[in-house]
Write the structure tokens for this entry.
Amino acid sequence: MSAPYIGPDARVFDSARVFDSAQVSGSAWVSDSAWVFGSAWVYGLAVISGDGRVSKPGDYLTLGPSLVSQRFITAHRDEKIGVRVNAGCFSGTIDEFKAAAKKTHADNPRQRAQYELFALMFRSHFDLLEGA
């Protein structure tokens, strides 16, 4: 098994760990108590945090950019809450993400609708993985 790789622009901090043959590259961040391991490759603008557990490519999904903020939003497996969504300063479950989007973007139906679609895609992605 090869050593893990962390690219020059990627960030791994707090008590996060990257091990086995996992790779973190691009501008990706891995923080808090998250683990990236096995054959996982986390890249681009992905953010893995909390008690994230990413061991293979399907363990996370990044969507975006969003219409208003132009940010990318990542959902990933999380040991404590199941699936965690990271969007800017928000970090929580898919349902919490939907509720926050509904409240924050009450006056912007296009952005709210896009975030609701992101939530649906995240839920579908991880539900499909469970059935695999």
The longest strand covers residues 73-78. The two ends are 25 Å apart (CA to CA). The longest helix spans residues 109-131. The chain has one domain: 5-131.
